[in-house]
Amino acid sequence: MSNVIGIGAAPRRKEDFRFLTGRGNYVADVKRADMTFGVFIRSPHGHAVIRGIDKAPALALPGVQAVLTGDDVAADGLGSLPCGWGIHGADGLPMKEPPFPMLAQGKVRFVGDMIAFVVADTLEQARAAAEAVVIDYAVLPAVVGVLEAVRPGAPQLFDDVPNNLCCDWELGDKAAVATAFKRAAHVARLSLVNNRLIGNPMEPRAAIAEYNGGTGHYTLWTTSQFPHVVRFLMSALVLKIPEQKMRVVAPDVGGGFGVKQFHYGEEAVITWAARQVGRPVKWVADRSEGFVSDRHGRDHVTEAELALDQNGKFLALKVVTFANMGGYLSTFGPNIPTNLYGPLLSGVYMTPAIYCNVKVVFTNTVPVDAYRGAGRPEATFVVERLVDVAAAEMGIDRVELRRRNIIPKESYPYQTPVLVEYDSGDPMGCLEDALASANVAGFAGRKAKSERDGKFRGLGFSTYVEACGLAPSRFAGRLGARGGLYESATVRVHPTGQVTVLIGTHNHGQGHETTFAQIVSEKLGVAFENVDIVFGDTDRVQFGMGTYGSRSLVVGGAALAKASDKVVVKGKKIAAHLLEAGEQDIQFKAGVFSVAGTDRIKTFQEIAGAAYVPHDYPLEVLEPGLEEQAYYDPVNFTYPGGCHIAEVEVDPETGTVTLEKYTAVDDVGTVINPMIVEGQLHGGIVQGIGQALYENAVYDDISGQLLSGSFMDYTMPRADHLPNMTIKTHSTLCTHTPMGVKGCGEVGTIGSPAAVINAVVDALSHLGVQHVDMPATPNRIWRVIQNAAMPRAAE
Amino acid sequence: MRSFAFHRPNTLYEMSALLGGVIDSVPLAGGMTLLPTIKQRLAAPAALVDLSKIPQMFGIAVTDGVLTIGAMTRHVDVAESAEIRSKVPLLASLAAGIGDPAVRNRGTIGGSVANNDPSADYPAAVLALDATIVTDRREIAADAFFKGLFATALEPEEIITAVRFPVPSAGGYAKFKSPASRYALVGVCVAQKAGKIRVAVTGAGPGVFRIGAMEAALESSFTPDAIAVIKVSSENLSSDIHADAEYRAHLVTVMAKKAVMAALQTL
């Protein structure tokens, strides 16, 4: 068929027409008759006991429908917010899992912690009433840093979590690592901080809920990356209402980056409140509220050591990390700095022994959870920085040291010492391609020119791998996942031969409506414009796990490919009947069923028509209709990765770092739509650059106030911070996903921070600088230069 | 945001009557600080008195070597004024670098000067150019106008109607922007007139200030090198998550040199 737009094509994105013409439908756009408006009262203190709440002044104000508090939650017997992962410590004991109440009960543990929900006829009335609620606090000392939180005498967040230690987790062979260190010719050591980030999707979180007293049905519209999981967690564990009476809709969502992949207390409170007040309840966060309530990312303090032999071969890696969980365990919280971190420490290298110990720590800060990359950027940063430190100390060229340790293409599949087996990859190929694409050979000349201008120029490499396509359920279950991680798709062929796909992933900027339509167009030979993708509504779509962890194409796309193949199988049976041939003789190609070796054909459209108008149809062996469903649970993670090269210029007078060139060569497996892949890489790389040079969530360490609580103080990367980027793919095919895809949503964010900081350190290396923490702000770099320039004290 | 009355007087007389007569009324110029403050419920005035329809508060004119800019003149109009670009180019480029296009299309010189944000750009130019602040009741010299963090010599209900800048023989402004807000972490304005030099700094401390040592050095030799070794003390400078006081002190010298370089281009 002429309008097939299949795998490898780059059509414009289907969804952009409605977005670019202002016709998207976001949660804030949803209006229900007679709806009310809600405002959350949030803790202004980092740590405090709530001695009393006086609702009366608020309830006396006009339009106020309800003021709900933690006491009301307790009185209704509602559950606390569940954590989706139960990890175990090195001692074999389960992590400490204190309750996370949807409204605070007795105590608040971070600035932004929810205390009460005020519902009124108008938003202004609700805001006025929220100000009228009188809350009596006994303010407690707060602790915001991980190292401070585990010290003796530190403020304790929970009575039954000594030293604020949630879990003391480990992975790898400690004894083998110790032995390897004993015979090392050199040990490179590095202490680093992985800075806390705030995702800031363009659309703030929002929710609107209504309750139908006649049927007992609830509907919640929410800005979620995984509406089915919200429905399951909220109905089964928090509100304890029948799952079939709960509909969750996540319509158009304006960016997620992980921030919207958790079940938030706001969702449960609003759904519960809708029944309490008997009218729909709407809440839309403002940006300031997002800063103190959207789950944050990263926030590690790490000591790492790499043992090498005299030739620079890696012998062993040892990593000890303190990971900040914030005030409570969020949905995936404890999984991120453990299972999504430790197994990535092997990188693209043949390191025979690895040991990782992670101390998961509670502090008086916003709960920390997955943010684009989630654990894997942190691991990559440790490994790729440490490789550069080792190279500098041993006097081996950084690229050469990587070449000596990179897993050769022919060694795949490669079993690492930290759980995972890489199925495919060619990191050396990515490296060589990137070296050429970045014109590394011409760097010396560019550096000399910078020097003539009084600037320092540096080049940074990051050769890396990540684990994507979350996740094989069996594997995840062994690591502590309490849910499955498969995906589902239904291909519904209409009597016209046009197609609706119902898929369990969620599109919030990734271009799924285009990519998935290309897969169906290719598989079934139907026109690209005749395929619509439906997602984000639990009443329309079968159970699905949603979108995160670069899983949508890898896991959801695989389910879609499987379901499409099932449609073809059934279509062949129908065609065999109509063409009076054996099923085994029917071929399907480009939208046409034919009898092999003949000119007898039926189009896909004719077969669809026959399925729904079964006048001449094999009813005795086949049901009418043409609709197939498939669930897909991957057998392994996928392992995209590549080589990123950053080139920076440092102005020593002001400490300003300017990113001059950026080159990324990534192995993302099969590329369905190269334009969308390039866009994903651009966005991901920029988020990594943001972490490396600009973004930083800073708390006051005494009061627990968030000091970077607005865009006036939290530096988002902007267009004028960035150079044009060279983006290329160098793909090997995944051996276990149906189309050979590996995923591309997070690669950019995972590879880039290390490349940028390695470049900054390289630019300053002539001053003896070995490491710079993120973000490399002008003040920090100026300080590093000042300190380096100072004469060293006599040793 | 709470509800408030909205008044839009057409004359200075009406304006004064409203500001003096309506309890808890505040003047609205460009609203770039006031409106976000109201939206965040940090302020809840009973009435806003919008100054945008008072003809005397508009206009750009150069007479007898003095540039007069009406208080309600938007940053974009200063940035794009051919008159200002030729006579006082530092002011045009300063205005072109304030905030972002949305701010420049709304924000006014009078509002910025009256607000005296410690990181705002205009106060540095007003002080360095030895401008005169014209209000609805008097004229105030720049040296007597700025009183530190958000404080000025303005009395309650006193409104700036214009700012008068003597046209300098040379001048330049250089700022190091906060990467987040794009306000001046440190901004330095240098102006030369009749052999006299004035150097004013914004962003670095709680209020705009002059550096006498740099002024003297530049009067001897109007070159960046003349001030390269002059450092300001970090003692009274601001320190925050973007820049500590020592770094700000260092940037004052760096930006002053750049401002002199810019000024030399205008000679």
Can you give a write-up of this model?
The complex is a heterodimer of chains A (795) and B (267). Chain A is of the alpha+beta class and 795 residues long. Chain A has three domains: 16-22 and 486-632, Aldehyde Oxidoreductase, domain 4; 31-140 and 202-255 and 260-291, Alpha-Beta Complex (Aldehyde Oxidoreductase, domain 3), CATH 3.90.1170; 296-470 and 636-789, Aldehyde oxidase/xanthine dehydrogenase, molybdopterin binding domain (Aldehyde Oxidoreductase, domain 4, 2-Layer Sandwich), CATH 3.30.365. Chain A contains 20 helices and 30 strands. In chain A, strands 3-5-1-13-10-11-12 form a seven-stranded mixed beta sheet, sandwiched between helices. In chain A, strands 7-17-16-15-8 form a five-stranded mixed beta sheet, sandwiched between helices. Chain A has a four-stranded mixed beta sheet with strand order 20-28-29-30, with helices on both faces. In chain A, α15 packs parallel to α16 (552-578) and α18 (674-694) packs across α19 (747-763). The longest helix of chain A is centred in the C-terminal third of the chain and has 27 residues, at 552-578. Chain A starts with 15 loop residues before the first helix and ends in a 6-residue tail after the last helix. The relative contact order of chain A is 0.13. Chain B is α+β, with helices and mostly antiparallel strands and 267 residues long. In chain B, the strands form three sheets. In chain B, strands 4-5-8-6-7 form a five-stranded antiparallel beta sheet. In chain B, strands 9-10-11-12 form a four-stranded antiparallel beta sheet, sandwiched between helices. In chain B, a hairpin with a 3-residue loop joins β6 (132-135) and β7 (139-141). The mean pLDDT of chain B is 97. The chains are: A alpha+beta (795), B alpha+beta (267). Chains A and B meet through α4 and α20 of A and α11 of B.
